[in-house]
Amino acid sequence: MIGRIAGTILHRAMDHVLIDVRGVGYIVHVSTRTASSLPPVGEACALYTDLLVREDLLQLFGFPTLLEKEWHRLLTSVQGIGAKASLAILGTLGPEGLGRALALGDASAIKAAPGVGPKLAQRVVMELKDKAPTVMAMGGTLTVDTAPSDEGIETAPKPRIRPAPAATPKVNFTAEALSALTNLGYNPSEAASAVAQAAENPEATDTAKLIRAALRLLAPKD
């Protein structure tokens, strides 16, 4: 399986990108969110990929992080959610927004994705709510190296661990808080829901504060 592709962008569209790898052009389907974040034509690009194989079709789907690729795999395990529906959901919510929607059981957020109706959105929530904490705990620090010298196709991804961008600090806080709560013995699904709610508090600016806010939500109510 092609797990990662790196090369030079030849063409960009809202739902796919054409990447030149040593003289061969590969069409990689992406979400609108990913498409808007890609560099201009002529610059280097690297994406983790998932290969869809059918009798009459081969399609590559691209993701900027391994975390997002894992969300894609989880989404496509739901009956009725194909690769394009998965990209629509990820393009609308992003990996963090999807994790929050699943943890909170918010089917309306998933329904906001183009082509996803209320019944399908509810099915996604019902089937993935208990599985979501595992992916949420992976965090958001896995990225690809877009250096031109790394140009090529790999059958196994080689993630680099880097500090999370300053613009999205709660990605790591969420993963760390969820891990801490599950280590304390809380049910992963309940912990994920509490962390997702607590993350909306503007005062939860680091892992410790996020944990405290989540613990308050998990505390027995009189």
UniProtKB/TrEMBL annotation:
<protein>
    <recommendedName>
        <fullName>Holliday junction branch migration complex subunit RuvA</fullName>
    </recommendedName>
</protein>
<dbReference type="InterPro" id="IPR010994">
    <property type="entry name" value="RuvA_2-like"/>
</dbReference>
<feature type="region of interest" description="Domain I">
    <location>
        <begin position="1"/>
        <end position="64"/>
    </location>
</feature>
<feature type="domain" description="DNA helicase Holliday junction RuvA type">
    <location>
        <begin position="1"/>
        <end position="62"/>
    </location>
</feature>
<dbReference type="GO" id="GO:0006281">
    <property type="term" value="P:DNA repair"/>
</dbReference>
<dbReference type="GO" id="GO:0009378">
    <property type="term" value="F:four-way junction helicase activity"/>
</dbReference>
<dbReference type="GO" id="GO:0005524">
    <property type="term" value="F:ATP binding"/>
</dbReference>
<dbReference type="InterPro" id="IPR012340">
    <property type="entry name" value="NA-bd_OB-fold"/>
</dbReference>
<dbReference type="GO" id="GO:0000400">
    <property type="term" value="F:four-way junction DNA binding"/>
</dbReference>
<keyword id="KW-0227">DNA damage</keyword>
<dbReference type="Pfam" id="PF07499">
    <property type="entry name" value="RuvA_C"/>
</dbReference>
<comment type="subunit">
    <text>Homotetramer. Forms an RuvA(8)-RuvB(12)-Holliday junction (HJ) complex. HJ DNA is sandwiched between 2 RuvA tetramers; dsDNA enters through RuvA and exits via RuvB. An RuvB hexamer assembles on each DNA strand where it exits the tetramer. Each RuvB hexamer is contacted by two RuvA subunits (via domain III) on 2 adjacent RuvB subunits; this complex drives branch migration. In the full resolvosome a probable DNA-RuvA(4)-RuvB(12)-RuvC(2) complex forms which resolves the HJ.</text>
</comment>
<keyword id="KW-0234">DNA repair</keyword>
<dbReference type="InterPro" id="IPR000085">
    <property type="entry name" value="RuvA"/>
</dbReference>
<dbReference type="InterPro" id="IPR036267">
    <property type="entry name" value="RuvA_C_sf"/>
</dbReference>
<comment type="similarity">
    <text>Belongs to the RuvA family.</text>
</comment>
<dbReference type="GO" id="GO:0009379">
    <property type="term" value="C:Holliday junction helicase complex"/>
</dbReference>
<dbReference type="Pfam" id="PF14520">
    <property type="entry name" value="HHH_5"/>
</dbReference>
<feature type="domain" description="Holliday junction DNA helicase RuvA C-terminal">
    <location>
        <begin position="174"/>
        <end position="219"/>
    </location>
</feature>
<feature type="compositionally biased region" description="Low complexity">
    <location>
        <begin position="155"/>
        <end position="166"/>
    </location>
</feature>
<feature type="region of interest" description="Domain III">
    <location>
        <begin position="167"/>
        <end position="222"/>
    </location>
</feature>
<keyword id="KW-0233">DNA recombination</keyword>
<dbReference type="GO" id="GO:0006310">
    <property type="term" value="P:DNA recombination"/>
</dbReference>
<dbReference type="Pfam" id="PF01330">
    <property type="entry name" value="RuvA_N"/>
</dbReference>
<keyword id="KW-0238">DNA-binding</keyword>
<dbReference type="GO" id="GO:0048476">
    <property type="term" value="C:Holliday junction resolvase complex"/>
</dbReference>
<comment type="function">
    <text>The RuvA-RuvB-RuvC complex processes Holliday junction (HJ) DNA during genetic recombination and DNA repair, while the RuvA-RuvB complex plays an important role in the rescue of blocked DNA replication forks via replication fork reversal (RFR). RuvA specifically binds to HJ cruciform DNA, conferring on it an open structure. The RuvB hexamer acts as an ATP-dependent pump, pulling dsDNA into and through the RuvAB complex. HJ branch migration allows RuvC to scan DNA until it finds its consensus sequence, where it cleaves and resolves the cruciform DNA.</text>
</comment>
<dbReference type="InterPro" id="IPR013849">
    <property type="entry name" value="DNA_helicase_Holl-junc_RuvA_I"/>
</dbReference>
<dbReference type="GO" id="GO:0005737">
    <property type="term" value="C:cytoplasm"/>
</dbReference>
<dbReference type="InterPro" id="IPR011114">
    <property type="entry name" value="RuvA_C"/>
</dbReference>
<keyword id="KW-0963">Cytoplasm</keyword>
<feature type="region of interest" description="Disordered">
    <location>
        <begin position="146"/>
        <end position="166"/>
    </location>
</feature>
